[in-house]
């Protein structure tokens, strides 16, 4: 049988140009076979949310992470359960949050929506034992058009805005049991002064628009503890180039760089100097 397969493969390689052969493989080869720059890789470990890799992904088997991700899924932040997954992005958020837990300062998330990432972080880090506050900021009803660029308005009109219906009641119901969580409703930057925190260890920006994210990082930067984390959810994603551009400009003005990640996220670690 293997001999026959090899004959077929050899014949196809000889008969078809490389672009046609690649397209044929896309049609007939399962998802676990993916074409990377070095060739076709079998036994792909991860393939979702715009990212595929044959590298180690054993966090997917971690009971701690599985429980944390399930806590995030319970908020239906990423649609009904099973509809879509962003596991590697959430894992990055959880592990960076766990690191930041040892740094003096509170946690702030601008762009919470239904709270999936925050819920996962709380579970993964056992946040209730940390003695910190977790501030969650959002309109909880989608975009504030007055803060959007023309391109961002076009994306919202094309459908991005429909992903964010009003969810304030659900967020209050879900997070109201946590005394350490403070929910702040309204549009950034007008609500930033409601974050009463002298020091910040972890800042997560996930607002899908450039001006509020630039305003937030400028507002909080001096309060971020050296060694603290800034996690940018949309940094490398298509259609979010304006966010990347303005956040790169900000980072350069502070003498730091954003570390781009294969998940589309970006990370800044506040330097000690």
Structural commentary:
There is one protein chain. By secondary structure, the chain is an alpha/beta fold. It folds into 2 domains: 2-53, no CATH class; 62-269, Rossmann fold, CATH 3.40.50.150. The chain contains 9 helices and 11 strands. It has helices spanning 2-15, 18-28, 63-73, 87-100, 116-125, 150-157, 168-175, 210-220, 241-253; strands spanning 34-36, 39-41, 46-48, 51-53, 106-110, 134-138, 181-185, 200-205, 224-232, 259-260, 266-269. The strands form 3 sheets. Strands 7-6-5-8-9-11-10 form a 7-stranded mixed sheet, with helices on both faces. It has a two-stranded antiparallel ribbon with strand order 1-2. A hairpin with a 5-residue loop joins strand 10 and strand 11 (266-269). The longest helix has 14 residues, at 2-15. The chain is globular. The N and C termini lie far apart (63 Å).
N/C terminus separation: 63 Å
Largest sheet: 7 strands, mixed
**Low-pLDDT residue spans:** none
Backbone structural class: alpha/beta
Q: Could you say what the CATH topology of the largest domain is called?
A: Rossmann fold
Order of helices and strands: HHEEEEHHEHEHHEEHEHEE
CATH architecture of the largest domain: 3-Layer(aba) Sandwich
Overall geometry: globular
Which strand order does the major sheet show? Answer: 7-6-5-8-9-11-10
Overall pLDDT confidence = 90
Strand content: 15-25%
Measured on Cα atoms, how large is the radius of gyration? 21 Å
Number of helices: 9
Q: What is the CATH domain class of the largest domain?
A: Alpha Beta
**How many domain modules?**
2
Helical amount among residues, as a percent range? Answer: 25-40%
